[in-house]
Write a structure and sequence with these properties.
With about 525 residues, this protein is α/β, with parallel strands linked by helices. The protein folds into two domains: about 280 residues, P-loop containing nucleotide triphosphate hydrolases (Rossmann fold, 3-Layer(aba) Sandwich), CATH 3.40.50.300; about 240 residues, Rossmann fold, CATH 3.40.50. Helices cover about 35% and strands about 25% of the residues. The chain contains 18 helices and 23 strands. The strands form five sheets. A nine-stranded mixed β-sheet has the order 13-12-14-15-23-22-21-18-19, sandwiched between helices. Strands 5-2-6-1-7-10-11 form a seven-stranded parallel β-sheet, with helices on both faces. It has a three-stranded mixed β-sheet with strand order 16-17-20, with helices on one face. Helix 8 links the parallel strand 10 and strand 11. About 50% of the residues are buried.
């Protein structure tokens, strides 16, 4: 099987939506019955984003095999319905680490190690590795054309056309056509410059995906086509849409899938009921029958990408009930916290690191518990639920996590044993999928409908088993457990309509066509509370 390679680059400004564009294109090809995989090339020198502040890079997406990756891999999983792996995210740091290690081991004896060919060869090897056993690999190049950091990646993908031939390589360039309100017109000059820069590098884009606020008329498309040396039918408009899951449909309406299939000489395999389930899902998002308001009470609210998978998982939970989930983004460090919580029908406390806002998060859990508001705590949110219960129900005054108070008399949350002597901070947490056994008489079992599950983790602290009997005696049910090490995975409160805390990150496995059971049931509980 000969693999075809599609490369997606971006120009003019960052955050144009290369990840969604790549994912949507992948969905288009999957609907044609093709075997597709994805790859993100990130230009930063960090080996992975695991030690970055969410304000720097958004959420860290964790794969099944425990890789801490770029958030775009979440888009890939949600659009393609596939699990990504370590090999699906490559950074400059990983490439240089690999080449320098090989140089130290004598792999390049007698040679001067250079960006070309050694770095670019290492990049191409990683692209080809993802393509093994696949018909198409879509590779998204992070950053913006013109950035110095992206140059080795761009040079590598330029060489791929020489290595594999014109019929096996396809370039998509995502660009911006800004609207000037003062003159009431769309301006094509930034796109012309961006494509010009790409052509200087030696890459001729096959297709331009143009982000716009206004519709692109034929005259404007012809102008872009002329100055950018791209056929006019290959100028694809990507206006803002009400849901990102509509993007593949806008591509199909403009025949982008047919352009790719024709250029790469790919034959579609599916012929019946194509897009039916996807279109139905989009309709449920756009025309909901119900509305419910749910709060995310966290501390990274200035950048919504910090909670990207959480937001999408709530949307998916709403799809299951044809419900629009209106998310109230509540910064727990601000004084208007309590006023804004009054109008919500569900409260979610997400994961996080550091002690800023921790006492407010614990108080939010108390508020949800005492007022019988449906509650979902994730990772740190689950730990806050345990701390609240220990303090306010079990009367363990001052109970805390050793992450925030190493001298607490009641360390109900403590380091995982294997984390106590860890020196390196990157890639050393409890990461990836671990099995969890669920008790049958529980809210969690009602959601999952099975007693054995596997969920993804990213944490260093856990419920301290020294306090387990005390907590359980006072009504905190530990309904899910990683039995080999007796680690608490799920906690619940019995005398509450819906109160669940989980140590793992269920949002990472939610899909628009397959909403995660916990988010589906959480939204259902919030709907009942509202009614």
């Amino acid at each position: 099987m000969k693999c075809k390679f599609i490369f997606v680059t971006g120009g003019v400004v960052s955050s144009l939506g290369k990840g969604v564009t790549s994912s949507a294109l992948g969905r288009c090809l999957i609907e044609h019955g093709l075997h597709v995989s994805m790859l993100k090339l990130d230009p930063y020198i960090n080996v992975d984003p695991g030690t970055m502040n969410p304000y720097q890079h958004g959420e860290v997406f964790v794969t099944e095999d425990g890789a801490e990756t770029d958030l775009d891999l979440g888009h890939y999983e949600r659009f393609l319905g596939q699990d990504m792996r370590k090999i699906n995210n490559v950074t400059t740091g990983q490439i240089y680490e690999e080449v320098i290690t090989q140089e130290r081991q004598g792999h390049y004896l007698g040679k001067t190690v250079q960006v070309i060919p050694h770095i670019t060869n290492a990049i191409k090897d990683r692209i080809r590795k993802v393509g093994q056993g696949k018909e198409v690999v879509i590779t998204e190049v992070g950053g913006t054309v013109g950035d110095i950091e992206s140059l080795p990646f761009l040079e590598a993908i330029r060489q791929m056309k020489i290595d594999h031939g014109i019929e096996n390589v396809f370039y998509v360039h995502v660009t911006l056509i800004p609207y000037l309100k003062s003159s009431d017109e769309l301006k094509t000059k930034p796109t012309q410059h961006s494509v010009g820069k790409l052509r200087e590098i030696g890459i001729e884009p096959n297709v331009l995906v143009c982000r716009t606020e206004k519709s692109l008329d034929l005259d404007l498309r012809e102008k872009v086509a002329l100055f950018c040396n791209v056929p006019v039918q290959n100028i694809i408009a990507a206006p803002d849409v009400s849901t990102i899951y509509e993007v593949p449909l806008t591509f199909v309406d403009q025949a982008l899938d047919k352009i790719v299939l024709s250029t790469l000489k790919l034959k579609p395999k599916k012929k019946t009921k194509r897009w039916d389930s996807w279109r139905s899902m989009v309709q449920k998002i756009k025309f909901p029958k119900n509305t419910v308001q749910i709060a995310i009470a966290g501390k990274y609210m200035e950048l919504k990408d910090s909670y990207k998978s959480l937001i999408e998982a709530l949307i998916h939970g709403g799809i299951a009930h044809e419900t629009l989930v209106q998310i109230e983004y509540i910064d727990v460090t601000l004084p208007d916290l309590w006023e804004r919580l009054k109008n919500v029908s569900g409260i979610l406390v997400p994961g996080g690191f550091g002690d800023r806002g921790i006492e407010a998060k614990i108080s939010v859990v108390s508020y949800a518990r005492e007022n019988k508001i449906p509650f979902l705590g994730i990772c740190l949110g689950m730990q806050c639920a345990v701390i609240d219960y220990a303090r306010n129900v079990c009367n363990l005054t001052g109970a805390h996590s050793t992450e925030f108070n190493s001298k607490t008399n009641y360390p109900v949350i403590d380091f995982l044993p294997e984390q106590k002597h860890v020196k390196k901070m990157g890639g050393t947490m409890r990461l990836g999928v671990f099995p969890c056994k669920i008790q049958k008489n529980s809210v969690a079992y009602h959601a999952y409908k099975q007693s054995e599950i596997g969920e993804r983790h990213r944490h260093r602290y856990e419920l301290n088993n020294r306090y387990r009997k005390i907590l359980e005696a006072q009504g905190l049910q530990i309904s899910g457990e990683y039995t080999p090490k007796k680690l608490a995975e799920i906690v619940e409160i019995k005398n509450h309509p819906w109160f669940v805390g989980v140590q793992f990150h269920p949002e990472l496995k939610s899909r628009p066509l397959r909403p995660h059971p916990l988010f589906r049931e959480f939204v259902k509980a919030a709907l009942h509370y509202e009614k």
